[in-house]
């Protein structure tokens, strides 16, 4: 065998570096992201825990679709018979309420008659869950309500609970009347907007209230030196209905002229208008410019000003004798003179402290 044949048969050494021209990498963009190591470990642990359970237990834990539908229907249909329980301690639980209602020796309620216990939860404190101090409990009939009302002022967790009918609203503070009822001005095309942020501009107001309807003019009161908003403004709408929508505080999506400025990604059907830049605005109907000008600078205002001046002049003209006038002036001067209130130091001490010349008040003694 020749040396040339051996050279041809010997394989070439493998190169570690890849040839960029020959190597082609295919990447599937639509392929799902591979799971991380942490996710793989969790899946492995879950398989081990599920494998230890018997098939009967797994069937119990997985409810059927029919039972889920029945449960949702039961939750949606609330009972008409319920009570309100107040003055609860923040650590009270649903089990405590259940035992409180069913374990009383004289006024016990059967467990099957209690259809719902709603205990609103508040923010946790020191890592422990806390309720808001009250609960709603529903029953299946009116007799259970009568028995539950007898348990009022009984001890639960060291506190005397207050039990009332869930439909009894006595003792609650009166709700605030609607702002529209409080308006002193009749509905008009012009509204007053207060409690604005100092950075508010005309564009912000027009974009915010543009969903109500067409805006004719927006006037913002500004500072002379900085030109920033003073905190209030006036908005003139083209129609009275647009002003009424703004005063109502919300607009149904699609009712306004242009919904694009106040659109959001949420699926809510209402656009709220009572807040701007995180501040709750105060809105009132404003007078028209013509009526406002007439009140301030019209003929009626001038006549009223002239009438007040005449009354002042007439009230000052009185015939008085010279002696009586002098005596009255003397009495007025005495009354108007400020009385010297005694201070902390006497007059002599003040003169010494200030370095003033003090009149001598010593007594002369003569020796015979």
Structure, explained:
It comes from Cladophialophora immunda. It holds the Pfam family RRM_1. This is RRM domain-containing protein. InterPro entries: Nucleotide-bd_a/b_plait_sf, RBD_domain_sf, RRM_dom. One of its GO terms (molecular function) is RNA binding. The structure is a single chain. Among the domains are: 84 residues, RRM (RNA recognition motif) domain (Alpha-Beta Plaits, 2-Layer Sandwich), CATH 3.30.70.330; 94 residues, RRM (RNA recognition motif) domain (Alpha-Beta Plaits), CATH 3.30.70.330. The chain is extended and about 125 Å long. It has 368 residues and is α+β, with helices and mostly antiparallel strands. The protein is built from 13 helices and 16 strands. The N terminus is likely disordered. The chain has a 4-stranded antiparallel beta sheet with strand order 2-5-1-8, covered by helices on one side.
What attributes characterize this protein structure?
four-stranded antiparallel sheet; Alpha-Beta Plaits; alpha+beta; single chain; 368 residues
Instruction: Give a short account of the largest sheet.
Output: 4 strands, antiparallel
Number of strands: 16
Count of helical segments?
13
Helix/strand/pairing class, anyone? alpha+beta
Distance between the termini: 169 Å
> Regions with pLDDT < 50 over 5+ consecutive residues?
1-6, 60-66, 260-267
Query: CATH homologous superfamily of the domain at 183-254 and 270-291?
Result: RRM (RNA recognition motif) domain
Strand order of the largest sheet: 2-5-1-8
Global mean pLDDT: 76
CATH architecture of the domain at 183-254 and 270-291: 2-Layer Sandwich
**Gross geometry:** extended
* CATH topology assignment of the domain at 183-254 and 270-291: Alpha-Beta Plaits
Helix percentage: 25-40%
């Amino acid at each position: 065998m020749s040396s040339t044949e051996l050279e041809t048969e010997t394989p070439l050494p493998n190169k570690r570096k890849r040839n960029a021209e020959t190597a082609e990498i295919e990447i599937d963009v639509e392929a799902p992201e591979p799971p991380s190591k942490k996710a793989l470990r969790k899946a492995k642990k879950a398989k081990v825990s599920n494998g230890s359970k018997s098939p009967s237990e797994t069937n119990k834990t997985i409810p059927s679709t029919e039972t889920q539908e029945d449960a949702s229907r039961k939750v949606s249909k609330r009972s008409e018979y319920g009570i309100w329980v107040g003055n609860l301690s923040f650590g009270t639980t649903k089990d405590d309420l259940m035992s409180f209602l069913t374990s009383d020796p004289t006024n016990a309620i059967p467990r099957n008659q209690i259809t719902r216990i709603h205990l609103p939860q508040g923010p946790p404190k020191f890592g422990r869950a806390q309720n808001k101090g009250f609960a709603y409990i529903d029953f299946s009939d009116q007799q259970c309500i009568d028995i539950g009302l007898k348990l009022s002022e009984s001890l639960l967790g060291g506190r005397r609970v207050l039990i009332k009918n869930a439909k009894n609203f006595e003792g609650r503070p009166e709700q605030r009347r609607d702002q529209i009822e409080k308006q002193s001005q009749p509905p008009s095309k012009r509204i007053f907007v207060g409690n604005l942020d100092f950075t508010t501009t005309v564009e912000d107001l027009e974009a915010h209230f543009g969903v109500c309807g067409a805006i004719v003019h927006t006037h913002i009161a500004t500072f002379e030196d900085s030109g920033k908003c003073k905190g209030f403004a006036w908005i003139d709408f083209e129609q009275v209905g647009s002003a009424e929508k703004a005063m109502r505080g919300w607009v149904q999506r699609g009712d306004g002229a242009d919904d694009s400025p106040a659109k959001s990604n949420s699926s809510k059907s209402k656009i709220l208008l009572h807040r701007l830049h995180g501040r709750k605005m105060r809105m009132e109907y404003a007078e028209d410019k013509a009526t406002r000008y007439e009140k301030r600078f019209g003929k009626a205002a001038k006549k009223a000003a002239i009438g007040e001046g005449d009354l002042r002049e007439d009230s000052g003209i009185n015939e008085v004798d010279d002696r009586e006038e002098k005596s009255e002036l003397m009495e007025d001067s005495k009354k108007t003179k400020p009385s010297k209130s005694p201070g902390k130091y006497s007059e002599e001490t003040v003169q010494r402290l200030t370095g003033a010349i003090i009149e001598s008040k010593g007594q002369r003694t003569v020796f015979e």
